[in-house]
Structure formats: structure tokens, C-alpha cells
Amino acid sequence: MPEDKIPPLEVSDLVKVYATHRGRRQLVTAVDGVSFTIGPGAAVGLVGASGSGKSTIAKIVTAAERPSSGHVTFGDQKVETLRRGGRREYHRRVQMVFQDPYAALNPLHTVEYAVMRPAQNFLGMSAHAARDRVHELLDIVGLTPSTQYAPKLPHQLSGGQHQRVVIARALACDPQLLIADEPVSMLDVSLRAGVLDLLAQLRHARGLSLLYITHDLLSARVVTDELLVLNKGRVVEAGPTAQVLRHPRDAYTKELLAAMPNPFAHAAAASGTT
Predict the structure, then answer these.
(1) Which terminus of the chain is more solvent-facing, meaning fewer CB atoms within 10 Å of its CB: N or C?
(2) Which secondary structure element, helix H or strand E, spans residue 214, and what is its range?
(3) Which domains does the chain possess?
(4) How much is the pTM?
(5) Least confident window among 149-153, 252-256, 265-269
(6) Residues in a beta bridge with 19
């Protein structure tokens, strides 16, 4: 898909406040004034620990929830104002890859059925055309030969294969933006690199835009151009991915990096930087 055909996603001064009722009514601000843009074919990462607000942002971007204030704009459309028909088209253009691949697939349906349904529902494909698309997409996500995987049920797949099917299903309706919410956090370490490489390849080969959500700064390095680091609902640091990883400025970003193996630590020490 040509990148000039993909509209930008703009998140402007987004705020989300929840009311709690533990004893007495209290207001909790989950997202506080977050703004960013994902241009055509670009990849932006939202990084933060649990409770930082990143998954709340994903829910708002996918129109699963409405913001308390601020806007999400895709092209010339304000997402929070979309009606039924407009929301359906938006969901065709913006697809989600979920954290838990095991829960994302119906255990009673075959791989073929899972990938066929979006193509039929959103694109109006005939059963024959949708089956052809299933095999094309299974080949694209590395489940080959596709004839071997199409008739399988989810319990017959490994964790990595599960997530590849979920990605194939997301691609079935020809989206323009993928939102990947912790897509490798539930996979074995040995499988994570393969799925991350697949997302990176798909982005470049198909011209997709990508919003990548994770608690892991280093996994974001594989698939993103820019990073936003979230802490308690606020952006505490933002910039090109390599810059944020090599030269973090905010103390919270440094804490996140210190909590995991850092491939840049040796180079930084050798150059005398911190």
C-alpha cells in the first residue's frame, strides 16, 4: 500500500479520567495530556510500566473507549465522533494485535475460519476469494505450507504460531494502521525475535503504520522509529528510538533501561558517556 494513501493518526492532548467507588467516589487520571502523531508508514512506540496509561491510550485509539478530553484524528475524521458506519470503516483501517494470542482465537474455529471472517465481513469477499486470501496471508506471516496450518485448531499451534495467526487475521481486511499491544510479552523468549522481525518486515513491505505498545524498551528498538515514555499517564520523554535508548534524559527512562540487559551499556562506557 503506497504510504501517501495512508492518513496520519494524530493524538492531541488526550486525557482519560476514571471514577472509582472504593468507599467514596474518587477520580483517577489514567492519561494526562498525551499528544503524538504517527505519519504514513511510521512506527511509534508507547513504553511504560504497568499502570502508565499505554493500554488506555490503545483503547481510546481503537474507539473502545472515549476520551475525557482531547481528540484522536485519523485523516480528517475525529475517532470519538464516529457513528456506526464510520466506526466500522475505521475498524477495517485500524486493526489490533492483542497481547494474549491464546485468548484472541476462538478454540472451536480453525485457522482458516479465523482469518477468513474479517476478509468476508469487511471486504465482502466470496468464500472462495477469502480462502485464497487466507493462504496468501499465512504464507506472508511465515506459516508455510499454508495448507498445513489452515485446517488446524488453536490448541494445535505453538505460542508463536498463535500470534502469527492473529497478525494474519489483522491483515485480512487490508488495514492501514496496526496497533500491537504487548504482542510478544506472553511468548517464550526464543519466539519473540521472530514475531518482532515479522512486524518490522510487514511494516516496510506493506507500508503499514504501527503503534507499538510495550513495557520493554529494547523490543521497541526492533520495530519503532520514535518512542514515547509514559509514567503515570504523562509523557516524560520522547524522541527517536535510538536516541532515547542510547542517551535517556529522564530518570524514569533510565530506571526502565537499568532494569533490563542493555546492549548499549558497553559502548556508552567505552565512549565515556552515561
Answers:
(1) C
(2) strand 209-214
(3) 6-271 (3.40.50.300)
(4) 0.88
(5) 265-269
(6) 27
